[in-house]
Amino acid sequence: MTELRTLKVALLGCGNVGAQVARILIEDADTFAARAGAKLQLSGIAVRDVHAKRDVDLPQDLFTTDADTLVKDADLVIELMGGIEPARTLILSALRNGACVVTGNKALVAQDGPTLHEEADKAGVQLSYEAAVAGAIPILRPIRDSLAGDRITRVLGIVNGTTNFILDQMDTTGAQFADALAEAQRLGYAEADPTADVEGHDAAAKAAILASLSFHTRFALENVHCEGITSVTAADIAAAKDAGFVIKLLAIAEKLPAAGTDADGGEGVSVRVHPTLLPREHPLAAVHGAFNAVFIEAENAGELMFYGQGAGGTPTASAVLGDLVSAARSLVLGGPGRTETTTGQVSALPIDAAVTSYYIGLDVADQPGVLARIAQLFAEHGVSIEIMRQTIHRDAESNVESAELRIVTHRASEAALAATVEAVKGLDVINSVTSVLRVEGV
Questions:
Q1: Distance between alpha carbon 49 and the CA centroid of its chain, in Å?
Q2: How far apart are CA 141 and CA 147, in angstroms?
Q3: Fewest CB within 10 angstroms: 104, 167, 245, 366, which?
Q4: 11, exposed or middle or buried, with CB in 10 Å at 0-12, 13-18, 19+?
Q5: Is residue 23 within 8 Å of 54, Cβ to Cβ?
Q6: Distance CA 155, CA 211 (A)
Q7: Has residue 394 got a pLDDT over 80?
Q8: Mind listing the pLDDT tens digit for each residue in 256-308?
Q9: Does the annotation count 241 as an active-site position?
Q10: To the nearest 10°, the Cα dihedral for 298, 304, 310, 315?
Q11: Residue 176, CA distances (Å) to 49, 170, 180, 260, 362 in order
């Protein structure tokens, strides 16, 4: 029997995911050797404090604070430190030294992916980041490999478990945003500082990655329009529920005609993250708790959905180790590493070019002619109304009646819809615009 070669694996970071990666790599060494065609030897784990208490019992002699030396001597590097620096410098060092790199660092890939890919291409090594989007769900490799013979037209994703848990709690229990967030923090789904999640920044980084792979063009974080969920109220959730919708924070990347924008004609891609109403019969509407799902529309394959755990140490470790085996195989077999393709070069479109439907909640005076005036204003702006519902309310103190209107429009350009809402606000029969949310799947 031919003796298997040994590949040295350097692990940068030993948090929740890193500790599970190390444990599984050690415990299942024989399995990984058989699958990779080489022994994968964990040569060291770079951490800030070698004596810190960890949930997983790992050999103490593996820990080091000297990440630079560890990287220089490695064949494969797993980066799970997070943040931009020193992760970026260490990854670039690894690539330039001819090591394949596996990372779960969505912020770094979204911000500086072109530079990292360029260095990987120069060295002929593999740069992989399946764990950067949707945790354990295999989504990046299917987009890159399984759908390489197709044309993706649209991607809709629930890619942040924290916000999905919060919105799901508000929908199923009627909780206010603050109470749902507190419950997410109690259960460990949300950080003490949840800003990156609830403001949509985490999902935006993942949206940039999904768009880059789906449309073969490198999109940066700055190309993503981003809105979080902090303005979503229990009243919004209840109104959506009454109308047959559920509110989700979606990452959306879709190909659109670029006419009328600054793009160079042809097609462009809109990449955005925002709270969105979905019909309750849509597959993504059934994604509950902290789970993730990505819904893909392709010209030939049609509609596909990938669903599973979007976070957590062991599930995310699964994605990391899948990338590790693939990278090890590329070293064993030789030849260039697998990477992204950037043959598309389509333009990133501004949010005004996006095509959506709107859900608009209005508090209006209860008097004749109001509905006609509102409908006329929508028509003047080229926006067609699909659904209009009216509920009459009487103020207990003043005894004055008012009407609550709930309007769902047909799909139109974001620019036309935004202009319509601004015009509606100027009508003297409008007491207030109670909510404005985008709608998909209608």
A1: 31
A2: 9
A3: 366
A4: buried
A5: no
A6: 8
A7: no
A8: 986 544 444 578 999 999 999 999 999 999 999 999 999 999 999 999 999 99
A9: no
A10: -110
A11: 40, 6, 6, 41, 21
User: How far is Cα 19 from Cα 54, in angstroms, rounded to an integer?
Assistant: 8
- Amino acid code (one letter) for 233: T
Rounded-to-integer distance, Cα 285 and Cα 293, Å: 10
Annotated catalytic residue, options 8, 53, 206, 241: 206
Q: Which two tokens stand for residue 321?
A: 């180790």
Most confident of 134-143, 290-299, 345-354, 386-395: 290-299
Distance between CA atoms of residues 162 and 429, nearest Å? 39
Joined tokens for residue 179: 């109470």
Task: Specify the residue for token string 């990372």.
Answer: 103
Distance from CA of residue 291 to its chain's centroid?
12
98 conformational bin, left if phi > 0, alpha if psi -120 to 50, beta if neither: left
Q: For residue 67, which of 50, 81, 82, 47 has the smallest C-alpha distance?
A: 47
- CA nearest neighbour of 128 among 111, 116, 112, 146: 116
CA atoms within 13 A on the CB side of 261: 25
pTM of the shown model: 0.90
> Tens of pLDDT along 47-95?
999 999 988 999 999 999 999 999 999 999 999 999 999 999 999 999 9
Tokens representing 129? Answer: 């980041």
Place of tokens 């992204």: 340
The CA distance from 99 to 327, in Å, is 9
The closest alpha carbon to 165, from 189, 188, 186, belongs to 189
